[in-house]
From TrEMBL:
This is Uncharacterized protein. InterPro entries: TIMP-like_OB-fold (IPR008993). Gene3D superfamilies: 2.40.50.120.
Amino acid sequence: MGPLDLQEREVTWGVRHLIMGPPEDIWQGSQDSATAYTYTLGKRSWAEWWPSEAECGGDVGLAKRCAQLAAFISALMEKGCLS
């Protein structure tokens, strides 16, 4: 399962997605909230389907994708966003 082209596909309500984009699409929040960020969707944004725990546990074919997402979460929690 590859990235979703936001121009060709709809992101379905009730289905989890990881939406990513380039660093220039991240806007720093107000001075009152230095840790608040706004993420905009630009022409280089993309979405990845993020299977639920039930989907991961119920489909052997999703095991690799679920493991990759778990590793991604772990890296973000340990190191933060590197961009």
